[in-house]
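=== RUN LOG ===
request id: a7f3
mode: sequence -> structure
chains: 1
length: 250
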Amino acid sequence: MAKRAIVRPPGRSYCNCISSHPEHGLLDLDHALKQHRDYVRTLSELGLEVMELTPRDDLPDACFVEDTVVIHRNKALMTRPNPVSRRDEIESVEEVLRDYFEIHRVEEPATLEGGDVIHLKTRLVSGVTQRTSIGGVQQMRDELAVEVDIVEDANIVHLKSYVTHLENNKMVGIGRYSKHPSFEEIDFLIIPDNEVYASNTLTINGTVLMPHGYSETAELLKQSDFDVIQLHTSEFARCEGALTCLSIIF
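=== RESULT ===
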C-alpha cells in the first residue's frame, strides 16, 4: 500500500519547460497551478501523506519529480536526466528521501529518468529512449539489485507515456507494446488509437487516476473493475508531462 507522495508545484518559469507539444505556446501558469492543486488534493483524499517541495523558479521542469528517482524496496536510485538543464532538480528530492531510503546515484555518462521505469511485482521494465540509456538501465539493475527488462524505442521520450501498470497483473497502453516480450504474462488493456495520452495512468491503492476527456479509456478501465478518477491535465500535456510525472509515490 502506498503511503506517501512527494510533489512540487510548477515554478514561475514553468512556461519555459522542455516541450515540442504543438500547444506549448498556449500554456497558462495559473491554470497549471490549479490543476496541480487538484492533483495534490486527490492524492491526499486517497490517503497519501503528501510532502510538497518548494517550487523552483529557476528550473522550469522541476514539477515533474518522478524523473529524479527510481525507488525499489529500501533503496532510492537518484537519476541522471538526459537534459543537462534538469540535473539540478535531483538534490532537493534526495534530501527528503534520505529519511526513508538507502541512497544510490547514477554515474556519468549514463542517463536514466523515472518516467521510463514501470514497477511490476517482482521486476522493473525500463524504456531505453531519448532520455534513458542502456548504461542507465545497467546501473539500475546493479544498484537496486533487481531484474530489469528493456523496451527499446529511440523515437519516444518516456515509456510511461505509452504504457502504465495498473494493479492485479493489468497494464494499459497502446497496441504497439501489447505483444512486447516484457509484458507476455500481463493482462494488457489496449486503448483506442485516438486516446494515446490516456495511456499514462496512476493507480493509488486500487483507484486509477487518468486524464480527463478520454471516455473510451475510462470505460475500458471501469469494465476491468477499477475505480476511476479523471483529472484535468492540459497544462502538463503542453509540457509533454502527465499524471505519473507529477509525483513520487512510496
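=== NOTES ===
The chain has one domain: 37-249.
The chain is about 20% helix and 25% strand.
=== END ===
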